[in-house]
Amino acid sequence: MPVRMLNEYTYCPRLMYLEWVDGEWADSADTVEGRFVHRRVDEPGGRLPAELPEGERIHSRSVELSDLAHALIARMDLVESDSGAVVPIDYKRGEPPDTPERAWEPERVQLCAQGLILRSQGYRCERGMLYYTAAHLRVEVPLDDALVQRTLDLIDQLKAAARQALPPPPLADSPKCARCSLVGICLPGETAMLSRPPESPRI
User: Fold this and answer.
1) How many folded domains does the chain comprise?
2) Within a domain: residue 73?
3) Residue 35's Cα: distance from chain center in Å?
């Protein structure tokens, strides 16, 4: 399971299903800008050494690794080493949100999943970073027990949702829908209207 789908599921379970299970896709201004932001870090070929060299910093782009235990795979934008540990760095368009964590939950969960993959490969990984390109700013995301457990719970939920014959229902009156690239395929308003029970005729 690509960790990007975990981001999508955390944002909207229906979006994950339409993209990953049904294979739907549509571009928007946000997705096009996102690809432009990732143009450098998406170049293939990044590698990590089996053991971190003593006293040497690692700076590897586009590192693809998997975790069989959790059935996860990720192409990490950037992985750096710091004091014997590795730090995954995920590039994001825009600026950090005005929240206590300075990051939305889907991005923190995606970064935590990358950390779990790195741990499964034998690396020590205690934190990750989100790099917001518009602000030229890194935001640290501690991979603490609470975030790890939340990520593991969402992985299980995603797997269960992906096995269903039908996609999850759309979000109810969510501001997320207006900027979603699949809003014209998902049709959240129309789907919600059709799912309502018919009104009893007036007598």
Assistant:
1) 1
2) yes
3) 15
